[in-house]
């Protein structure tokens, strides 16, 4: 019966129609929260419900950046996540190359082991992680205080401290993102023939020239994809900055959003929505930039 | 000047010896082809000459200078890779000029040299394109351009035509030979295709299992193979090998008997063949259809391949097939019987280990 129906054009049109209708419903369901965020953020009178704004305003955005610490939160987030992404790209580039090119029995076990870091829930590890970082931080603080004295040491620790400092959060975020990036880069370099490097060797390129002129341009799509995943995932992380940061100057965007939500008086949905939109934007922009790298990386590597 | 000498060269992968003491000499300006089945070590040997693989034993001399420990780019050797290995992120001009750019040659000079090379290789219109926008033959020419811009004394080719279709391969064969005549560089060319080897080489080195099976001029390999391996590897379709027994006939000639084919008598008075079991090697083109009265043996025809200009007949039995090449179009059908004769002058004999038995 069914095959017979498939040949009937009017029935097929009906099936197509119901398929598209279902897909549309699902898309609307997924898109509505984003739509709500955008609408509420420019609504002078936003509420918990989806509504068409009666008066359009950019007051919420002005408040974020002028009255509140929005600029600082954005810069902190960009700095921490950007640096972590950069570290991930450099380490994954070098490590992925090494893992792809060396022949060793421990390669497979190693690759699966590092995936564990990714698989284990961060929440489960947070106590030992905090303990380790705290010990390191106390030791570092002791050294810095001995050299620079109390006041300057506190200022320096804001940058290089493991607890309530940029460095600790950057390193932990990078560590969480590194395994997946290593996998991506290792798989990517597997598709890059050695011939390119050997041709460059025959052409008289030094090690550095081979990396800079041949390997990095060839690896760019893979690095883009690995960097994108690292950036988006680290950008969305909330638990680690919550646990590791406490000073107001170090707050990142998700923390700002969280604290705004917790304020005692009535909840200002317009303000929250505007903040949420600011938080969404970089991830979307990063995706837009790196989309073609993704396609190239996951559909078959370098084409000569 | 570039004379290549390999002296007792060896290569190990772990405990496995892949190149087993190879001695090869390639004269200046010669076009040498390394040929052999896959796994014979021909590419490894080429990469050892290039410097991409280390030499574990023996010496590689270039014009008498030991090159074992010289860096690849300091040997004055260029290489064309099987995959071409064109940098996908550079234009054709940048690809060709890359080696000069690395040497900090001024941009204007590079441009001039690249244009001169492009002129020779008919790439002038494509200099600004990326490799991805070129055809297979054009990529091949870019790879050659990248090699010859270095003005190397030696150019190595690693199966350069294997990615091209048949007609382009014939055309590139001629182009490579013309290029070799013009450049006068010493060429070492690796292929598994014996037709490529026969048509292009001044000297062919046949490799088998990491050893030189025989090295000589192409036509000498065809006429005087040292062993059954070379005999069957060179020539297409391959030489027939038939187990025979050699005995001494009453008239003093050698009596060569093969099961099913009967006996033939061969005059070996100039250099008598040893009696006993041996292998008879006879090429398809040295077997003929004979008139019913004469001829050496008759056989059923198993397969007929009519190509127009020539016809291939498979005779004998399926477990011991014999290929016969007949000029022209022969209208025969499988199942027919016919009588065949063997060209006595072109018979080769090998002992049971495959070594050629000397003939006058």
From TrEMBL, chain A:
CDD domains named among the record's database cross-references: TM_PBP2
SUPFAM superfamilies associated with the record: MetI-like
Annotated Pfam families: BPD_transp_1
Keyword list, A-Z: Cell membrane, Membrane, Sugar transport, Transmembrane, Transmembrane helix, Transport
InterPro entries with a match to the protein in the record: BP-dep_ABC_trans_perm, MetI-like, MetI-like_sf
Protein's recorded name: Multiple sugar transport system permease protein
Recorded topology in the membrane: Multi-pass membrane protein
Protein localization: Cell membrane
Residue ranges of domain ABC transmembrane type-1 in the record: 74-290
Listed transmembrane segments: 20-42, 73-98, 110-130, 166-185, 214-232, 269-290
Superkingdom, natural source: Bacteria
UniProt similarity note: Belongs to the binding-protein-dependent transport system permease family.
Keyword Transmembrane: yes
UniProtKB/TrEMBL annotation, chain B:
Xref: PANTHER family: MALTODEXTRIN IMPORT ATP-BINDING PROTEIN MSMX, MALTOSE_MALTODEXTRIN IMPORT ATP-BINDING PROTEIN MALK
Keywords of the record: ATP-binding, Hydrolase, Nucleotide-binding, Sugar transport, Transport
Root EC class: hydrolase
Keyword Coiled coil attributed: no
Organism whose genome encodes this protein: Kaistia dalseonensis
Positions of transmembrane segments: none
Protein's name in the database: Multiple sugar transport system ATP-binding protein
Similarity-based family: Belongs to the ABC transporter superfamily.
């Amino acid at each position: 019966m069914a095959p017979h129906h498939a040949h009937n054009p009017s029935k097929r049109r009906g099936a197509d129609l119901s398929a598209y209708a279902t897909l549309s419903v699902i898309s609307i369901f997924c898109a509505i929260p984003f739509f709500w965020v955008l609408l509420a953020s420019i609504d002078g009178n936003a509420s918990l419900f989806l509504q068409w704004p009666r008066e359009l305003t950019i007051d919420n955005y002005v408040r974020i950046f002028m009255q509140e610490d929005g600029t600082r939160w954005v810069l902190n987030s960009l700095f921490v996540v950007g640096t972590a992404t950069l570290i991930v790209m450099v380490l994954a580039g070098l490590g992925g190359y090494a893992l792809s090119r060396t022949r060793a029995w421990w390669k497979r076990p190693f690759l699966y082991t590092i995936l564990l870091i990714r698989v284990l829930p961060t929440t489960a590890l947070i106590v030992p992680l905090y303990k380790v970082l705290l010990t390191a931080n106390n030791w570092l603080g002791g050294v810095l205080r001995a050299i620079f004295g109390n006041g300057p040491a506190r200022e320096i620790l804001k940058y290089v401290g493991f607890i309530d400092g940029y460095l600790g959060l950057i390193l932990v975020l990078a560590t969480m993102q590194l395994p997946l990036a290593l996998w991506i880069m290792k798989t990517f370099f597997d598709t890059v023939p050695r011939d390119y490097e050997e041709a460059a060797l025959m052409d008289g390129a030094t090690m550095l020239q081979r990396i800079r002129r041949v390997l990095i341009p060839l690896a760019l799509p893979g690095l883009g994809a690995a960097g994108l995943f690292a950036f988006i995932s680290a950008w969305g992380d909330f638990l680690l900055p919550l646990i590791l940061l406490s000073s107001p100057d170090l707050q990142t965007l998700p923390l700002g959003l969280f604290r705004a939500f917790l304020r005692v008086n009535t909840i200002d949905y317009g303000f929250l929505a505007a903040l949420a939109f600011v938080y969404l934007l970089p991830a979307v922009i990063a995706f837009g930039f790196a989309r073609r790298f993704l396609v190239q990386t996951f559909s078959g590597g370098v084409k000569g | 000047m570039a004379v290549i000498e390999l002296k007792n060269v060896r290569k190990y992968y772990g405990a496995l010896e892949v190149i087993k003491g190879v001695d090869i000499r390639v004269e200046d300006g010669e076009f040498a082809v390394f040929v052999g089945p896959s796994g014979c070590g021909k590419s490894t040997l080429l990469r050892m000459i290039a410097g991409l693989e280390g030499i574990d034993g023996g010496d590689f001399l270039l014009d008498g200078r030991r090159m074992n420990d010289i860096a690849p780019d300091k040997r004055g050797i260029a290489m064309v890779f099987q995959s071409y290995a064109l940098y996908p992120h550079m234009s054709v001009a940048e690809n060709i000029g890359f080696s000069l750019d690395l040497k900090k040659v001024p941009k204007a000079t590079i441009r001039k040299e690249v244009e001169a090379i492009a002129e020779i290789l008919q790439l002038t219109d494509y200099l600004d394109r990326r490799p991805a926008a070129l055809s297979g033959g054009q990529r091949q020419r870019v790879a050659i351009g990248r090699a010859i811009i270095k003005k190397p004394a030696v150019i190595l080719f690693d199966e350069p035509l294997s990615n091209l279709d048949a007609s382009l391969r014939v055309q590139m064969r001629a182009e490579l030979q013309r290029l070799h005549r013009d450049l006068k560089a010493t060429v070492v060319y690796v292929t598994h295709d014996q037709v490529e080897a026969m048509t292009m080489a001044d000297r062919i080195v046949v490799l088998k299992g990491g050893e030189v099976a025989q090295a000589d001029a192409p036509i000498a390999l065809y006429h005087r193979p040292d062993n059954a391996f070379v005999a069957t590897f060179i020539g297409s379709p391959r030489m027939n090998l038939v187990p025979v027994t050699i005995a001494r006939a009453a008239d003093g000639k050698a009596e060569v008997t093969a099961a099913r084919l009967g006996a033939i008598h061969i005059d070996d008075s100039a250099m008598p063949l040893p009696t006993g079991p041996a292998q008879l090697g006879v090429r398809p083109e040295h077997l003929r259809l004979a008139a019913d009265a004469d001829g050496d043996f008759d056989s059923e025809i198993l397969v007929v391949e009519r190509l127009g200009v020539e016809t291939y007949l498979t005779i004998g039995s399926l477990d011991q097939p014999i290929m016969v090449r007949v000029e022209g179009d022969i209208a025969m059908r499988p199942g027919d019987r016919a009588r065949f004769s063997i060209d006595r002058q072109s018979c080769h004999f090998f002992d049971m280990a495959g070594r050629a038995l000397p003939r006058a």
